[in-house]
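User: Last request for today: this protein with calcium ion, please.
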Amino acid sequence: MHVSRKGAVGVIAAGIMILAAVSLGHAQQPEGRGGRGGGRGAGRGAAPPRPECVNPKIPAAECSVGASPIAWADPALGDGPFLLESARPEHRNLRVVVVARLQQPWSIAFLPDGSILVTERAGRLRIIRNGVLDPAPVAGVPEVRAAGLQGLMDVVLHPQFAQNRWVYLSYHKPVPTGGTTPLGQPILAGESTLARGVWDGTALTNVQDIFRSGATGTESSRIGFGRDGMLYMSVSASGTGPDVFRSADPNDYAGKTVRLRDDGSIPPDNPFVSREGYKPGIYTLGHRNGHSMSLNPDTGEFWVTEQGPNGGDEVNILKRGADYGWPYVSHGVNYMGKKISDSPYREGTEQPKVVWVPSIATTGGTFYRGDVFTGWRNSYFVGGLREGETPRTGHMQRIEFNENWEELRREPMLRELKQRIRDIRVGPDGLIYVATAEQQGALLRIEPGDPAP
Ligand SMILES: [Ca+2]
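Assistant: Here's the final one, the structure of the complex with calcium ion:
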């Protein structure tokens, strides 16, 4: 498909519109926008803003940057268990249990001894043993810059963890910008970084940064191991402002997925390893804010979620060397309502496998291959923070596919809880674990409820 010069001008105009929308939206923000007040008193507009939304240089895409944001905090999560229903009759009755209360939990990993590791965005790694959250964070986590949407992100075990006990963390490393505040304090930026440490049973030891992207001003990051033994990591670009164009710049890791060896080095067979002007770790380009790195257990492909603005959320299937189009093509609209691109198609760019208009603010995703919810074995589960720019609409979607991975149905789940959802993982017990995205957040577990009558 030919892309006209007019199209390119339109894209630049759209970029300026995004920027304008951001400035305008920010200027008009009432106190407590998007705030999360812990529930009591929530909804009266008095809740403080979420910490990641406090006066960022460019408001994060998750922070209601639209024309007329609504300040209506999510209600507090009760103690549970919550008895909910789902569509498929064999899994009609569900029980949702609060496993632990956590502050902005971000990712979940299961240790072979049954313990659960959970990252909190502020920079803490927590551990739940025998269903009890250790009040002391796990030692050994590097210093993290937690501001805007940055912080401690993913935690993943090496596929041969039983032998090498390696744990991987993706996080934003504080690095000086060279600037200082009016009070003379150094201004720090956060660089998307991959660290690896050794789990000694209670702490991370010998923690080292094994890949530094050099990219600051980035957003979320997930990591996952492929069937080829390589580690794949998303490095998100900022979703608004002039930084959106970094996703298309091959000499910048922002807005890309990278492919690394398990020691963080660059494999010699990467798609752009010897191409001038390209970062050698790049595996795919043209992403916005990537929020999952889920290996399809059937096909061995990575399915990755990507937040669009107010429309254009995507699930993409990673293909070596492919360009996923952001910010030049999107099915979506920006926060002021304008379409991102005249056409969502462009020669040489990959189309999403799943697209949402309006957005649900996609987050973590997972496939189900456990033995408990057998009716969900060809489903992909994806978290959502907010649907259609409206508060209290966070939920999880179960997207059901046929044996050819063609979409059959989308079932919104956990809507009744009115919590923003950050991550979803399947435990070794075959149950589904869900991290909410709230400041006063939680780790939830979805279990079968009482048998259907
Ligand atoms: Ca795309």
